[in-house]
Amino acid sequence: MVRQKSAVLIMATYTNPTLSPVELPWKPLLYIDDQAAIFTCTGSPEGVIVANTGSKAYSDNGLEYRKTTDGVNTGWVAQLDQSGAGAALIQNPTTNAIPYNDGALPFGDSPLWRSSATEVILGSGLSSATPPAQVRLTGTAGLGTDIATGDVTIAPPVATGAAVPGIIDTQLPLIRATGSTVQSLSSARPRPWLRQMSQWSNQVTIVSSTAETLFLAANPDFGNANRDIEAGFFRVGRRFKGYAKGTMGDTGTPTGRLRLYLGPTGTLLIADTGAITLVTIGGGCTWYAEFDFTVLTLGATGTIRLHRNSFDYGASNGGARVYFDSVPATVANVDSTGVNRIVWTWTWSASSASNTLTCEEFELSMSP
Fold first, then answer.
1. For residue 151, which phi and psi values (nearest 5 degrees)?
2. What angle do CA 223, 262, 295 make, to 5 degrees?
3. pLDDT tens for residues 104-138?
4. What is the distance between the alpha carbons of residues 52 and 68, in angstroms, rounded to a whole number?
5. pTM
6. Which strands sit side by side in the sheet containing 76-78, from one edge to the other?
7. Are strands 239-249 and 285-297 parallel, antiparallel or unpaired?
8. What share of the chain is helix, strand, coil (3-state, %, to 5)?
9. Per-domain residue ranges for the chain?
10. Distance (Å, rounded) from C-alpha 115 to C-alpha 61?
């Protein structure tokens, strides 16, 4: 039974001891004057521990129970569960400490926290009506005038050394026939593409030059400095897609040449259109280029597989699409142990103020 004390809190000198078969399957941890108590126990306290409303029991099964009745050993309810069977509390991954959490948050929400070794579910439990809002995962909010906030980073668990780490994927609810059957999650796990870097504010123009010239900004608006793919991002089967677009103009029928490089300093040629004979496009038109490759092997002499990549310009101006067919589809000696810099260049055959190419946008994305 709950022992009554006069305005005194007594902390036990033990926490979750090993119990012999002749001992009771519970121990008092903290007594609170005339009303509630906190216990540790083995299994469910229901039908075992006599306590008053508001008492708590933390079980070795990982569940938290709360008392809803006075003076009897029934009325223990497992907390924070969507099915009524109870839910494990979230543990600190470093100390394995179980936090005290009765489901009440400062903003008045009562979320469901269901946890196991592989699963955490956030929400407000089962509802017979459409929930009023989505579950939101966010960071610390700003307070005051024009207070900026940090980003929220979602990261899969890390591996060690050269082992293949986990990735981020999704499971989608499967729509069923009309009825009350709860939808199951897909066995397929679609994986979102991830934006690696983007350039949109820093435009680069090549004009009055016959030199091979980089048309990407020195540093993207988003992404690593110098357009570097970070060391360790290459993994077998990972795919990278990039595109660039802008405007161009010429006089006469000059040629232009588009080349794409990788490598620690961006000197390994992986794609080349060769000389493209252009039509006269006068005042200008739009152009668009794209590349696409998949990592085949890793290491200092790794390989990638180029897919069909292209450059096209102003069909309305008599332009055309040209494919990167001047290098083999499989490229060797791509060093995945260090950074790989994206270098994309254009070369005019004739120098003229009318021969101009401007890159207005660039983006690189990759599969998980």
1. -80, 165
2. 90
3. 333 334 444 444 455 665 555 555 666 555 566 77
4. 7
5. 0.65
6. 26-31, 37-41, 56-59, 64-67, 76-78
7. antiparallel
8. 0, 35, 65
9. 194-366
10. 12
